[in-house]
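Lecture notes, structural biology module. Today: joint structure prediction for complexes of two components.
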Amino acid sequence: MSKKVNNSIIVVFVEGDTEKEFYQELINFYRLKIPNVIPKIKIYNLKGIGRFENKVASKIKLEVLPNYNPENIIVFCCYDSDVFELGKKPPTNWNIVEKKLKELGVTLFYRIIAIRMIEDWFLVDLDGLLSYLKIKKAPSLKGRNAYEKMKALFKAGNKIYQKGNSSHKFIPSLNIKKIRDNYSKELKTLELKIGFKDK
Amino acid sequence: MEILNIAVGGFANVGKVKLSLDKFNALVALNNYGKSNVINAIEFGIDFLKESIEDKSKMMALRSIIPINKHIDKNPYSFEVELLTTFQNEDCIVSYGYSFDWIKNDNKGKQIKEEFLKIKTIKPDSKYKAYIKRNTREGKYMSSPTGRCDKKISVKKSELIINKLSNFDDLFYSDVIEKIVKLDIVYIDTLQHPDRLFRQINTKVVKTGYSLSMPSTSDVGYFIYSLREKKSDLYEIFEDSVKSLLNDIEDFEPVELDFKKEVKFDSEKVELPLDFPEKLYDIRVKENNNNQQSSINSLSSGSQKIFYILALTIAAELNNVPIISFEELENSIHPGLLQRLLMILDGLTEKTKIITSSHSPYLIQYLDTNKIKIGIPNSEGLAIFKEIRKSKFSKVVKIAEDEGISVGDVIFDRVIECSSGDYELLNELCY
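The predicted structure, tokenised, for the full assembly:
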């Protein structure tokens, strides 16, 4: 006997601990700003050693579909547009993910793409990062991309930055509103589905 | 200084292997195929540069590494390296190499056959200029900046011109020569049992203070203690890296136990010209769920190896060692930690490059496809390593996506297929 509820659920897939922490903070920020009840939101971290295309479909099939109707499941996949040089090869093919979800009847599929990489978003709040790293003055941030700049910044704080790893709890030090305001275009659909309106 | 390319040949079952080096480089092959031989051949070539004439002569007769494979048993040992460095205030590419004949019947062989040193600037139209030229008959070098490489130099059969020139103080390219002669490679043996890594007293060489020079295996504890004493910022990075990888470790601290402080005999002199230190270095560890601290020896072998790998990587970077080689970096390390370990090694090193042999598709999937050298099984029993053609990268990715596996899995799958005689796809992918 199905125990499916008629409510919607927003399922957010991310590729690492840091991204999970970031989106969790972002959702907390929205919760504080929205007076009404917002839909249930579940964040899945796709960390691990296997292929993520199958993992997304498997999570939806085994953990979400038993409780929600497919038309009420809204999926957001969050990823970088650049391929991380020490990332899995091949990188996740999100078109395959979308296709697999369609096969499961889940058609509300959206992408939140960090143009280049999520580290570009983090660097928007340089003050927050400096405060976490206990650095008074920002070093010269040389590097061919935001990951390299984060590496240089963390090294100035005697730490090694590890993309997607939660060993360094810097997300709570970030000004989420500042980052959200800077990337509101990328977050527009998520905010619409949650019911967040920027005043 | 940075090593761009390195090529070796005529060593054990290594015919000829050229590696264009990036930050991470991997040699992938089946067991007993020659991955370690390639790494050993590089180490041998670099060590040969530093040895005396007598020891060079002995190295040319080392039984275990003279090729006995009938397809290469006449080949000389060859070593070539290409460096990016500054010379006369310009960024330059330095190409140096030598070859020698192994010992032969009737006490023949054991002779340097060829040696060269060439330098060019990094400008696109720049051409190499010869500084050392040598064949079996004669050797020549360039003696002045305005001259040519035509000054004769007399050298013994097992002597390298570069070693002789390193004694010429006023030679205008002596700094380039010094960089080549002092080339170094650090071999990090991740296969050994970690019991030999910590809590050792080094009785061979007397050390009267703390030192950050490249430690031997049994001196890792001493190096970590020295790091904390002399370079607190780097020690903090080391501490952060270890804790990032080993989440169970709440805290740790290197300690020094000075036995001579514990016992004093009345008859011992107070003032000594040399008071032999007898110190033991341990690392005290507090794990999250333990009610008390313990020695690093109580950790799993994989955890101890992480301390070892990270300490030696920091030491290599501090000592400007251009190459670190790992025998199966993945050994004893959980697959879920491999990407993090790579990111940490990437963060710890600037110009030091890493070569690892590997049996792990989990490790390989994180590396650049063009930096993976694949050992191609062949009927000749030679270690032949090839790269995937750039034009075939997308095909490898497509195969991985279609099969729902990683690029690492695809590579290992194809090597296995190849070993049972199905060479077609691997030959199509590689060159």
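Point to remember: The mean pLDDT of chain A is 93.
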